[in-house]
């Protein structure tokens, strides 16, 4: 395992310990609203602090982009951190949330960790070296047709600008696929796509820290990731499509007619 990936794993597990302890006593947590339907708890902040401590101890000159504390430092090496992706699930005791850590070097994703502390599932990837769940090599699914595909997504819950476009896509895919699922952690949804549990995934308006690690997992598992035009602008736009190569293309074809100029 690459030293940077090993450090990210250590950081993710440290955060996972904090999250698991807090999950045993949810009623005592302090929770704040960042914005409509966007919650932050003391656990998010403690987990992020723990991650940063581990990373900066090993790499003190690296930059960090983290959900709760924003941008820190200036370096060609940047860690991208979501300390608790799926906070709403966590606060309700719904065990579908994750820690997401990615490394970006000169704008290119190079390492990724998505850790599910409730199941102790550790998804990792290094560019050019494959993706893994614990010690098992991951490959995207072999599903060839959308009609046989299980697709993951995320509902708009903060910004409803693209709600009509989203509902149009959802309505069509509901009729064209084997099923749609909305578990509530985009990082895990992408990890599941890498593992072949989902055949594809799409969502509007995500943040860089929601998708950076998961995107590399999908790519290193043999899948494709793009924005709604199939291009590589998904980290900037927040609009993402991922899947095995055949389902990826069919998802783009289904999504395209529903997009407004703003959604593109």
UniProtKB/TrEMBL annotation:
<comment type="similarity">
    <text>Belongs to the inositol monophosphatase superfamily.</text>
</comment>
<feature type="binding site">
    <location>
        <position position="85"/>
    </location>
    <ligand>
        <name>Mg(2+)</name>
    </ligand>
</feature>
<comment type="subunit">
    <text>Homodimer. The rRNA transcription and antitermination complex (rrnTAC) consists of RNA polymerase (RNAP), NusA, NusB, NusE (rpsJ), NusG, SubB, ribosomal protein S4, DNA and precursor rRNA; S4 is more flexible than other subunits.</text>
</comment>
<protein>
    <recommendedName>
        <fullName>Inositol-1-monophosphatase</fullName>
        <ecNumber>3.1.3.25</ecNumber>
    </recommendedName>
</protein>
<dbReference type="InterPro" id="IPR000760">
    <property type="entry name" value="Inositol_monophosphatase-like"/>
</dbReference>
<keyword id="KW-0479">Metal-binding</keyword>
<dbReference type="GO" id="GO:0046872">
    <property type="term" value="F:metal ion binding"/>
</dbReference>
<keyword id="KW-0378">Hydrolase</keyword>
<dbReference type="InterPro" id="IPR033942">
    <property type="entry name" value="IMPase"/>
</dbReference>
<feature type="binding site">
    <location>
        <position position="82"/>
    </location>
    <ligand>
        <name>Mg(2+)</name>
    </ligand>
</feature>
<dbReference type="InterPro" id="IPR020583">
    <property type="entry name" value="Inositol_monoP_metal-BS"/>
</dbReference>
<dbReference type="InterPro" id="IPR022337">
    <property type="entry name" value="Inositol_monophosphatase_SuhB"/>
</dbReference>
<dbReference type="InterPro" id="IPR020550">
    <property type="entry name" value="Inositol_monophosphatase_CS"/>
</dbReference>
<feature type="binding site">
    <location>
        <position position="210"/>
    </location>
    <ligand>
        <name>Mg(2+)</name>
    </ligand>
</feature>
<dbReference type="GO" id="GO:0006020">
    <property type="term" value="P:inositol metabolic process"/>
</dbReference>
<feature type="binding site">
    <location>
        <position position="84"/>
    </location>
    <ligand>
        <name>Mg(2+)</name>
    </ligand>
</feature>
<keyword id="KW-0460">Magnesium</keyword>
<dbReference type="GO" id="GO:0046854">
    <property type="term" value="P:phosphatidylinositol phosphate biosynthetic process"/>
</dbReference>
<dbReference type="GO" id="GO:0007165">
    <property type="term" value="P:signal transduction"/>
</dbReference>
<dbReference type="GO" id="GO:0008934">
    <property type="term" value="F:inositol monophosphate 1-phosphatase activity"/>
</dbReference>
<dbReference type="Pfam" id="PF00459">
    <property type="entry name" value="Inositol_P"/>
</dbReference>
<feature type="binding site">
    <location>
        <position position="67"/>
    </location>
    <ligand>
        <name>Mg(2+)</name>
    </ligand>
</feature>
